[in-house]
Amino acid sequence: MALLEIRGLAAEVEGKPILRGVDLSLPEGEVHAIMGPNGSGKSTLAYVLAGREGYHVSAGSVRFDGEDLLAMDPEARAAAGLFLAFQYPVELPGVGNANFLRTALNAVRRARAEPEIDAMKFLKEARAALKRLSMSEEMLKRNVNVGFSGGEKKRNEIFQMALLRPRLAILDETDSGLDIDALKIVANGVNALRGEKFSALVITHYQRLLDHIVPDKVHVLSEGRIVRSGGPELALSLEESGYAGLVAEAAA
Amino acid sequence: MSATLRETGENFSARYHGLAPRLPGPPDLRRRAADWFDRHGLPDTRDESWRFTSLRPLAGIVFSRAEDQDDTAPSLLARLPPTEAPLLVFTQGRMRADLSRFPAGGRAGISVASFANEPSFGNVPDSETEPLSALNTMLAEDGARIAVAPSADGGTLVLLHLASGNAEHPPAFHPRHQIRLGAGARLTLIEIALGTSIYLHNPLTEVVLAEQAELLHLRLQDESAAAFHLGSLHVALGPGSAYESVALVRGARLARSELTAAIVGEGARFALHAAQILGGEQLADITTVVRHLAPGASSRQSIRNVLTERAHGVFQGRIAVDRIAQKTDGYQMNKALLLSEEAQINSKPELEIFADDVKCSHGATVGALDPNQLFYLQSRGVPKAEARAILVAAFLGEMLEAIPHSWGRSVLEGAVQSWWKDRPV
Fold it and tell me: Which residues of A touch B384 (CB under 8 A)?
C-alpha cells in the first residue's frame, strides 16, 4: 500500500464544494507534483490533509501509512510524520523561533515515544541545518516569521521541515513570490531529504519549481478533481499549452 | 442584597469598637476612619468607582479577627523557588520573626521593623475616607516598616504574605506596610501573597521615594481561589525618583488592587506593568490613579488581562495632570485576551489634564486567540493545549522577560506556567 492513499475525497468550505472526488496514491519515497489553475482546490487539498478547521470532508477517505488520517488532530498528523509548508506562513509575535522549533521537535518526539532533546543539542542540530540551507543563524533569535520577508518566511518553512524530518511533506505553493536564489534554497532543502523514507506532494501553479525538484509524477487538479496524471514531461507540456486545453479535454 | 453586605460592613465596625482600646498607635485617625466606615460601610455598585466590581460575594460572611494558630505557612513557603535573599514573612497579617530572615544588621543601610512595635500611619491621602483604606486604617494591627538609608543600596527584600484561611470562621487581616527610600537609595522589593481556604486580606502599603530613589517592586498576588483580596498601594515619588512595578494577579475569588501614585517631584518616572490571569468565577480589578503634580515626569501603565471560563477583569485608570505639571508624558494601555465566550473585561480610562504642554495617551484592545496561529503550532506537532499556553505566554512574555531580577522573574514566570495546570482547555 502507498504511504498516502486518497480515495474519492470531497470537501467543502462554508458549504461550498471545493474538492469533488480526489483520487491519489503516493508511494513511499516518491515526490509528486500537483498542478492546476487558480481555484482548482490545490490549497484546500493541502489544508484538508493537514487538518485545518473549517474544511468539511463530505466524502471519501485518506489513509496515511494505513491509518485514517482524517480522524487525527493536526498535531497527531504532524507526529505521524506529516508536514505542511504553508503558502502563507503565520507570524507568532512574542514566540522565539528557536524555542518554537525546539517545542515542536520535542512535541513530535514525545508523541513518537522518543527522548526529548536538550537546548544544547538542539542548537547544534539547528545550526547545522541552517548551514546546509545557506541561512543565517540570526533566524533562530527572531520571533517566528515576525518581520520576515516573503522569501525568509518560505525558507523558515523549509528549515522547520529539515529539523522535523517528516515522512510526507506537503509544499503549498512554496515557490510563489520567491526569486531564483530563494527557489534554489527551497529546492535544495527538499532534495536533501529525498530518499526511501521521504515523500512529498509539491503543490505549484508553475513549472519553474519542478526544474529544481524533479517529480516522479505530475497530477493536474481541476475543479476539485485530478483530471490528468503523468510523468515530469506533463508539467513541461502544461507550460507550453496552458491548463485550458487540458481542462476542456477533461470536461469533454 | 445591600442588607447583607451592610451586615458584613457592620461586623467590621463592631470589631473596631470592641478592639479600639487595645489597637496600637495614635487613635485619632482610626476613630475618623471608623466614623466614616460606620456611616458608609462597604461600597456597592452604585458607587461610580465600584460600578464594575460588586462586593456581593462578601455579603453575609462574618469575618473574624485573625488569631495566631497552627498554620500552613511551611507548605506555602515550599511553593517558592529557593532564595538566599532576606525574607519578611507574615501569616494572617502578622509578622513572623520565627519564619523570617532579616537583612544582616546595618548592612546596606536597610532597616526593618514591625507596625505592631512601631505603629505609625504614615502620610497616606484620604486613608480614612476611601473604603479599602479606611477599613485598613480602622483595623490595622501589624505590618512591615522598611527603610533604606539615603544613598544605600538595599539589595533585594522578599515580603511574603501567607494566609491560612478557614471556611467556617474566615479571618480578616489588615496589615499596614510602609516602605521608605531615602535620597538616592535603591531597593528591589518582591511581594508575594499566597494562601489557603477563605479569608480577607486587606493590606495598605505606603511607598515613599525621596529624591533620586529607585524602587523595583515585583508583586505576585496568588491568594487562595476562595479568598478575598482588597488592597491599596500608595506611592509618593520625589524629584527624579523612579518607581517600576511588575505585578501579576492570578489568585483570589474577588480581588481589587488599588494604586495611587502621587508624582510630587520633577522628572520622576512611574511605570506599572500588570497582568491579571483569571479563570472560573474570578473577578479581579486594578484601579489606578496617577497624579502628575510636578513638571517633566513620566508615567507608563501597561495592563494585560488573560481571561477564561467566566472570569471578569476590570481596569480603571485615571491620569490627572495638574496645571503645573508641564511636559508630562503619560501613557496607559489595557489589553485583554478572552479565552472563552463567557469571560468579560471592563476598561475605563480617564484623563484629566489641566496643563497645556503634555503628551498623554491611552488605549484598549480586546481579542481572542488567533485560530491561524493555533493551527500553525498544531501543524508542527504542538498539542492544542500547549499551543494555547504558548500564545498566552507570548501575550505576557514582553512584560515578564523585561523583569531585571532573575529570581523575581522566575517566580512570576512560574506562576504563569503553573496557571495552565489547573485549567481544562
Answer: 73, 75
